[in-house]
Design a protein that fits this description.
Layout lengths: L2 H22 L2 H7 L3 E6 L8 H7 L8 E4 L11 H10 L4 E6 L5 H13 L4 E5 L20 H12 L17 E6 L7 H13 L3 E6 L3 H11 L6 E6 L4 H10 L7 H9 L3 H16 L5 E5 L7 H8 L2
Parallel strand pairs: 1-2, 1-8, 2-3, 3-4, 4-5, 5-6, 6-7, 7-8
Helix pairs in contact: 5-6, 6-7, 10-11, 11-12
Length: 313
């Protein structure tokens, strides 16, 4: 057999083995291994079915490392994140379950952590949560019994076999991969870094950033947190329109979309192509600063394969 054929066969075999190994690794394993990671955010619907979302995620489920499911994002009532995560698990995807402290006391939060573990859902993203005044039920009474640091500590306590009251769990304790969020655009930045350190001390294994658009903001943040050696996924939002961009600038704390990007998107004759191009540009700019990327398509799941194709992912 000619050496070129042999070499090609061998390279293909090695590639298949590596792909098989990567597909068998859990999200936590990939984090610890230092692998470059890409996760995609998905939001439950305001209804009892999550199937329409799952159907849109299936085409690229093996091309990303996890699907991060939001917990009543922006304080808008929807299906629970835990139920949606179970549906993702049943569809063969690895979910990252967001848990916000806004709506549940320490009893319910610990109960949901145990419930998630019982379904094999071990990746948790701990959030304090947006105030209900921002959502569609502004009369809602917020809970905030715990904050995100305390929720991380509660999850780590359950791993040790005890709850927050010091009571022992029945049977084997759960195992979690717990993450948290950080806002690189916070001003001043120092208090945000102090909170980040507290989250790490409580047991946060990874961080997911607020949406990044400004390279100077990103460089300032990653330089400041470099000594922490934290595993960070850079948040990238897929912008649909000029209106969406201006809304985010006005309403989302810590987000600053440069005017040049907004003008470029407004002038583009092909909005989808422009959105893909911008998302890929942001990923290429910020991914090298972090361990990977958390892609937020804001419900526009059909554009994700185009982004992955363009990136060569």
């Amino acid at each position: 057999m000619p050496s070129t054929v042999t070499g090609g066969w061998f390279q293909n075999a090695i590639h298949c083995v590596l792909v098989t190994i990567l597909l068998s690794m859990s999200f936590s394993d990939k984090l610890l291994s230092g692998k470059r990671i890409i996760t995609v955010e998905a939001a439950p619907l305001k209804g009892m079915s999550f199937a329409p979302v799952v159907e849109q995620l299936v085409p690229f489920k093996e091309r990303v490392d996890a699907i991060n499911v939001t917990d009543l994002q922006s304080s808008v009532m929807r299906m629970s994140s835990l139920a949606a995560a179970v549906h993702l698990k049943e569809a063969g995807m690895e979910p990252v379950l967001q848990m916000a402290c806004r709506d549940r006391n320490r009893l319910a939060l610990q109960a949901d952590l145990l419930a998630a573990a019982s379904f094999g859902i071990v990746n948790i993203l701990a959030l304090t949560g947006d105030h209900p005044l921002l959502g569609d039920h502004p009369e809602t009474k917020p809970v905030f019994d715990l904050d995100s640091v305390q929720l991380i500590a509660a999850a780590r306590g359950l791993e040790q076999g005890t709850d927050l009251a010091g009571r022992k769990l029945v049977g084997d304790p759960p195992r979690f991969c717990v993450g948290a969020v950080v806002n690189p655009g916070a001003d001043p930045l120092e208090p945000e870094i102090i909170k980040m350190e507290k989250k790490m001390e409580a047991g946060a294994a990874f961080f997911q950033t607020q949406a990044l658009f400004d390279e100077k903001v990103a460089e300032r943040f990653f330089k400041a947190v470099a000594p922490l050696k934290a595993r960070i996924l850079a948040g990238v939002v897929v912008l649909r329109s000029e209106k969406m961009a201006r809304h985010m600038n006005a309403r989302v704390p810590g987000v600053n979309i440069p005017e040049a990007l907004i003008v470029e998107l407004a002038a583009a004759p092909d909005k989808k192509a422009a959105s893909v191009r911008m998302a890929c540009g942001l990923i290429k700019r910020f991914a090298p600063m972090a361990q990977g990327v958390h892609l937020m398509p804001i419900g526009w799941y059909s554009v994700v394969p185009d982004i992955l194709d363009t990136l060569g992912a």
